[in-house]
Structures are given as C-alpha cells and as structure tokens.
Amino acid sequence: MIIKEITIYGYGKWVDQHFSFTSPVQVIYGPNEAGKSTMIDFIISLLFGFQNKRQAVHGQYIPKNSSAYGGEMVFVSQDTTYRLTRIAGTHGGKVTLYDETNQLELADTDLQKILGPVDRSVYTSFFYFGELDQQAFYKMSLSDLQLRIQQIGISNANDWFDLQTDLQKKADNLYTPRGRKPVINQQLKEYSQLTTKVAAARDKYPQYDQQTSQLADLQMQRKETDQKISELQTQVQHYQHLAQVSPLIKQKHRLAQEVDQLAPQFIPTEQITEIQRLIAEKKNLDSQLTEMMAVKTETTNNQDLLSFLKQNAELIGELKSQLAINMDRSSQISFLEKEIEAKQQKVTQQIANLGSSITELPIPFETNRLGEISAIINDDDQNTRSKGQSQSVSSAPVMVLGSGVISFVIGMAAHLNWLMILAVIIFGGAGFTWWRQKSISMPNDVSDDQHQMQVEQIRRDYRLNDIPVDRWLAIQSDLQSIYRQKDEIKQQTEQVDQLSNQLTNYLEQWQFASHWLPSETGGQRDRLEVIQLTLTDWQATQHSADQEQRYAANHQQQVQQKQLQLEQVQVELQKDYQKLGLDNEQQLANRIEINQEYQDKQQQLEVIESQLKDLPTVTDTEVADVDAKLNNLTSELTTNQQLNNEQSKQIAETQATIQHLVNDGSYYELRQQQANLQTEINDNVIQWLGYRSALTWLETTMNIITKGRVPKVLELTTKYFAILTNQSYNKVIFQDAIRVVREDDTVFEINELSRGTLEQLYFALVLALAVGFHEDFALPIIIDDGFVNFDGQRKQAAKKLLTEIGKQNQVLFYTADNNQLSEFNEDQIITLG
To answer: Residue-wise over 764-789: b if at least 16 C-beta within 10 A, else e?
Structure first.
C-alpha cells in the first residue's frame, strides 16, 4: 500500500488541510506542537477506525473550531487506486471506499480484505517506530517474537500459544533433563533404588537363579509346544473345511475350464453396445429417410406473377421508392384545393360586401397616388358642404385623424403593411385638410369644374362608377385583400396543375403492369392507394414463394444429410463387423448368446470362488488326499497336546520350588514393586512423548501457516542492525532473551547496550518485521522522531537503510529535528507550519 494523499476535514488542530506524499521516503518536518502526532494518529485511525474515549489514551482529536470530523485518503494497492473516506459515526466511524481505477463503490468489508489480519494493535507493533519501551524490550524472547509474527498469519494466535504453553507446562511437570521435581525424574530415582534392593535380596538365595533359569527354559519349551499345537489346529481345521468344500472345488475347476473355452469367442460388452447403437441408428435413419422422401414440397400457383415480378424487379423497385413522394403530392393537391375553395368563398363574400349594384370589380389605388387622390376626394367633400357648416367642417380633420389611428393600430396588430401605409396617408390627408381650413379665406386657384373633372377621371381609371366618392377610401382595404387572394388562388391553382401533371406522369409509368393492377377507377389518389395495396400483395406473394423455396431447399439438404449420416453409420458398422469376424446381424445375435453363456458361467464361478475365498489355493492332488492328510495331522496334534500337559506340570513344580526359596516374601514384593513402578514409568513416558509430539506439531504447523517468517525476520534483523551500526555488530541472537554479538565475537545482553545502540536494534527489528510481511501486507512504515539518540554517523546509516527499504515499503518519517533535513532532498520534505 502506498498513500498518495490525505485530506483532513477536521482532526485535532488540523481543519480542511491537504497533503500529498510524492516520495517513497517522505519526510514530514515540524517543530513541537506542529501537529505531527495528530497527523500520524489521523492516518492510523483512517485505516483502522476512530477510537472511543476508553481506547484513546491521548484523546480522540475532536476539533475545537470545526464540526467536521475525519477526512479521506487516496492510496494505491496492487496497481489499483482507492479513495478511503471516514467521518464521524459508530463503530469506528462511517467508512466509504471507492475504486477509482475501475470506477466502483466498494463495501466496508473490501477495506478489511485489503488490510488482511492487520489491525491497529498489529500495525503499531510491526510498522510504527516511535518511543522505545526499554523494559519491555529487555524482556522480549524468541517466543514473544514468534507470537507477534504469528498473530498476523494465524487467527486466534493467542489461543494457539496458550495451548502451546499449557502443553509445555504439562510436559515439564512429567520430565525435564535436569529436574528433580518432575514425576518421571522422581520415578527413575525410585526405580534405581529398587533395583539395588532387588539385587541385594536376590543374593540371599543361591538356588534362585538355577530355578529361575530352569523355569524360563520350561516356559520356552511350552511356548514352542503351544505354537506347534496352534499350527496343527489350524491345519486340521483347514483340511476339515477342505473335506467339506471338496465338491465345490471340483465344480470350480469344471467351470474354470468351460470359461476358458468360451473366452476366445467373448465380445466385450462395450463393443456389443457400440454395434447395437449403430444398428439402432441405421434403422432410425432408414425410417426418417422413408418419411422425408414421402413428403412432397408445395409450390406456389402464382408462377406467372412471380415471373413478371422477377423480370420487372428493378423498375418496380424504382417506382415503389417514388410511391411515398407521389402520395405526398396527392395529399398536397387535396390541401391546396381546400385552400383555393376557402379563398374563393372569402373573395365572393368580400365582393358582395362592396355592394350588390357593382357591375365590375374596382381597382385599388396605387400606393404612390394614395395621398394625391385622398386630397382630391377631400376637396370635393369640402366643396359640397355648405359654408354654414363650419363647425362640422372644422371637425373633419379630427375624424380623418381618428380613422388613421384606427387603421394604423389594426395594421400593426394584423401585420398588414398596406394598412399601415394607408394610415400614414390618412394622417397626411388630415394635415392637408387642416391646412385647407386655415386657408379657406384665400382665393381658390382651381375651379370647381376642373376639380370635378379630376374626380371623374379617378372614377373611370379605377372602375368606381357604382360606388359613391365618400366610400372610395374606405373600400381600399377590402380591394387590396380581394386582389391579393386572387393572386394566391392563381398561384395555388398553377401548383395544383403542376402536381397533378407529376402524378399523371407517375401513373402512366405503371402502364406496363396494367394487366396485374385492378381496373382504373376513381381519381389519382384512389389509383395510388390501389398501387400501394397491390405492392403489399406482391411482397406477400414473393415472401411466401421465398419461404416455400427455402423450405424445399432445406428439406433437400436434410435428406442429403440423413443419407450421408446413413452411409457413415453403414461404413462404421461394416468395420465393426469385420473386426469381430461377423457378416450380419444374425451372426451378432449368435455371438451375444455365447456372451451370455460366458457371463453366466463366469458369475457362477465367482460365486463359488467367493465361498472358497478363505481357503488357500489347492491342487486336485490335495483334494484327492484330504482324508489321509487329515488323519496324520490329528494324530500329531494329540501327541503335542500330551507333551504340553507334561511341560505345564514341570513348570508348576519349578514355580513351587522358587516360592519355597522366597521364604519371607520380601524379594517377591520388591520385584513386584519394581514391575509396578516400571509400568507407571512407561505410562508417564508415553504421556510425555504425546505432549512433546503435540508441541512439535504445533510449532511446525504455526511456522508453515506464517510461511516461515520467523527465520526471515531474524535474518533481516541481523542484516539491518549490522548496517545501522556500520558492521560493529554482526549477529543478533533470539533465545530466552535477546543478545547481540560484536565484531570481536563479544556477546552482550541488550540491557548492556547504550540507548542509541538499543534504539538501532529496535529500529532494525521493526523494519525487519515490516519487510518480512511485505509480500502479503506491504503497509507504510511510520517513524516518529526515531533517530533522536542517533549520532551523525548512525543517522546517515539509518537514512541509507530507509532508502533501501523505500524500494519495497513506503516510509513516512516524522521529525522535529531540522538538522536531519540535510540528509534528504527537498522534494522529499513536507514542512508543517
């Protein structure tokens, strides 16, 4: 695991802070109270959980000036980048783990898989180097070191070590090489004393050895006779059983001969099964081919249509691709015709609104003459009014101005530019009228006749014969609308004609298929729909024909495949027949009958052999001589039994003589005590050996589980300690306590070392433990002011070793000593404020 960066939301004095670790050996420098210990506890807590009040010896580092608590860490493990977030919550805080490499959100258990069996306690023991507890280090033994190492590799390691300690205690209570109190040690001492007493007692009886020797000889002779009797009894029983089963033996020999005669004609069951499978498969294929050949594939009755479609496929396809366009054209024609009809109705209504007496449609005024004509019309209006109507005349400009305002508002609302222009003209007319009223008293240069001529000329030019002069300006809006809609009707009519011609041209292109199309009825739209339906029918006909063709081809292919399979089966069947020397199925049936006979006799033979399985193999001669052999063995057994009785009598007499020699019974009691004690010693030794075997198995098993890390850690500790001391010490010994060997072979207890050398040894052990677990748990090593008691030379050696270790494990080195910064590059250093 390599920590790339940490972000602290709130933890102790740190609030909203971010740090990036870019170097394998990262130095974090800061004076006292700079927050180094807080950052170390933050990293450990982020990995293993926040401690509660009871667990946190130095406090929980809850921020005083922020409500945020916790933070996040980005780290890399096994080429995968993770983002770990831990904030306030129960059971060590709320954890979120995200796989940034694969963009996956992971569960809390995935963090435990990454950390393995390492918890806070194990981490601070193996990967943290801080203040040294000298007293605890002085007392550390090889067993303590093994326990610390095996705590990671073995679940419930404490229970294993408790069991190991209990077994060792029980074994030591029974026996130790130099002990006096263990049970076996005391028993051995007592046995030695009894042996001396027995020897002394035995010397009191001169005849005892002779009688004892005679008794041993007699017991040996009887033992040999017993063995001979046992052998004879076994042989007698054998021949008695042989006499009973001789008919079965004869039957066995007969069946064995018959089986041997049938064996050459026996066909293995798997070969018969294979041939029968081939025969069954051949019959099945013959049946399937018969059924398939009886099936007639249907053909379509529309061959003429299909031929026509095939010959004209390209042209039909091209016209089919144009059908949708022409259907759209038909829809456009229908829409335009409706538009034209609506506009014609509107024009008719507007013309009717002009007046029923109109014989011809007036022409609207041109825009450029609208002002001039308005002035003439206003002059005419003024001349026809009496001079006494001055009040009415004076109100004309106001009325004209009002009309202009209304026209302008309507034009803007309806977006009618011509109406807005008319409003402007009306405004001009109003102004002119006002000017005329101002100059009413001035001489009029134009005569009434000339003015009347102008009005009449306008009437003739614009066909206004049937409309009063005072309405000329009012009808201009309707006239403009009528003529505009007439133009639109003309344009849309031309567009309808063009689309209709295109449809006619398209329909004429279908003349080649007139025989296959329904009779032409209805309009262009109806004919297009007929063509569309006909194309659908043609497509269905072609699809059906294609299906029939594919079915016929598939059927033919299946027939060919079955025929090929049948040929292959026949070839394989013929080969099997030839291998067995057969010509047909009938010969196979005969051989199967022979097989059955062979198997029946073989089964009978196996039953008899099972009945005779306890009987040794015998020959025909032995079966014939069984009665004579049985008589001889019975006679010999009787003779040995009589000899055995005589030997038992002599043994009893000798034992009585020995008992008489032991007149006071003390020798017998000592021998009995000695025998009893020997039995107790043997039982205790067996129990002691059991404890020792269990201890050996436990030690071997724990070393296997922990992958032999103990020797590796011991070796690395010696290596690193030599580097740190510039080879002044070349060996570290782990036994009941830790000792070191100087280069001159002088051995030192660790309590004899200076504090600086002791810290170097402890530092070497921490690094060895961390590196020893690198393959499985490569966690960052944290060093907290670890070189305070190192001199300059030792610091250089430590820096060299850290650089080497940094190739495998990330090292976070916290220090308050700025003199140590010179040993590192600037890019390795983070300075805390």
So the answer is: bbbbbbbbbbeeebbbbbbbbbbbee
